[in-house]
Amino acid sequence: MKLSNSRPSRVGRNPFVHKLKFTMTEKIKIGLMSVTVFPVRLLLVSFFMLLAWPFAFAASLGRSEFVIEPQSWWRRLVDLCLQVIMRAMWFCGGFHWIKVKGERAAPSEVPILTVAPHSAYFDAIPVTMTMCSIVTKLESRSIPVWGTLISYIRPVFVFRSDQDSRKKTVEEIKRRAQSGGEWPQIMIFPEGTCTNRSGLILFKAGAFIPGLPVQPVVLRYPNKLDTFTWTWRGPGAFKILWLTLCQPHNSMEIEYLPIYTPSDEEKENPALFANNVRRLMAKALELPLTDLSFDDREISLSEGPLRIQDYSSLLEFNQLVCRLGLRAGARVKVLEEQAKRAGKLQGDRLGLQDFGQFLDLPVTDTLAQVHRLFDKRGDGQIDVRHFVIALSTVHRPSRSMETLKLAFKMYEAEEDGDVREDDLAAILETMLGLKEVELSGVFLSLDRPDTGTIAYDEFHHFIEQHPRFVMDHLNFEDHPGRGCCVRRERRNGHNHDKDD
């Protein structure tokens, strides 16, 4: 695949990975704090959380989750008590003072607060300080003690088991936002997941669909040692709690930015609205924009000997197929059926109209964009087998061997089941996101440099025996340990000319 001009050729630091490194001095400090301060802090934090529970439980009794009710004097008193208790809890956890910049707008003026970056469960601090509603999964209210506190702030629950969950969630946000301040403000983390704060990933559109003014809120953790970040690959929840409670002091800054009022164009286009607010917040944070989303995390975190090396083109492809509705329908049976049909074409190249017929989709701008990704020759024709391989890769990025087996079925010769060397190079280029893959090292290692073909079982066994297969046995453009590769010549003197 090739990148369009609208995307960078590579993505920077992976926002879904967090690695902690400690100096010897820091290790000694953590060791001392673990046997002195940590147990005391943990006991106090637990005490205040348990103390908050009866207040939240009593105030939640008999209250409707769907109908707004006047806030009685005693519930306002409970609000105040809970804010004091929760602030004491955070204080005992080392958040001795929390710097707040700017001024929070009134609910009647701004119904939605958009908060970023979302990187830790300590991001709950501004929620407990304001008692705003949040958007959270339904399973959250089943968490002992904490679930009662979550239910008290009347969140918008997401029913993940419901196929229409996203639509219903957006409708509920819109209903509350248009209540004229009768409902509490909704504090939304539009990234939709936790990252390592290296940049702002793409915002989900839910907070921006109502087309009403929003107030951006940015969070900072100025500590030199980042023990807060809780993302997809990194320290677990308890380790983060332990390390954070072992710090002498934990700093946090909350900044309320000026209210952002959408233009008429932004009201009609929530994605544009979201992106413009994201740019504003990134500027305030002095962070780059990262062209990744929650849905891209599996691709960027692929593992195994055939893990994706450069996921830029596959991310663009994934976004396009999601817009076409193909990502959700990429079940194993569907992929196998497409692979069977693609194999029967035996490399016949398809134009845009034929490609649409292959997928049973009308020709649209999005379909044309997908088609262009695989048009390596620039002649408006593609090998649809490359599309099937890419679709299988983004559907199951951590199960690369299954994709490899599917690809072999499309390319293998009928007489012996082998795949040619140049076809295997094309398969690996698509799966790994690489350019100009050259396999002479593999065939030399197999002591069969002159055959030019290989069977799936033999190749699979070779990969299993070499966990660093990509780095040690492939030549490709921008290889970190070599210069750009030059394709070796065939035995008949002609260069490899892949049918891309």
TrEMBL record:
Q: In which pathway does it act?
A: Phospholipid metabolism; Lipid metabolism; phospholipid metabolism
InterPro entries associated with the record: EF-hand-dom_pair, EF_hand_dom, LPCAT1-like, Plipid/glycerol_acylTrfase
List, alphabetically, the SMART domains matched: PlsC (SM00563)
Subcellular localization, as worded in the UniProt entry: Membrane
The main location class comes to membrane
Q: Which BP terms in the Gene Ontology apply to this protein?
A: phospholipid biosynthetic process
The GO terms this record gives for MF are: 1-acylglycerophosphocholine O-acyltransferase activity; calcium ion binding; lysophosphatidic acid acyltransferase activity
Signal peptide location:
none
Keywords carried by this UniProt record:
Acyltransferase, Lipid biosynthesis, Lipid metabolism, Membrane, Phospholipid biosynthesis, Phospholipid metabolism, Transferase, Transmembrane, Transmembrane helix
Q: Which residues form the EF-hand domain?
A: 362-397
Task: Name the family.
Answer: Belongs to the 1-acyl-sn-glycerol-3-phosphate acyltransferase family.
What name is this protein filed under?
A: Lysophosphatidylcholine acyltransferase 1
Organism of origin:
Scophthalmus maximus (Turbot)
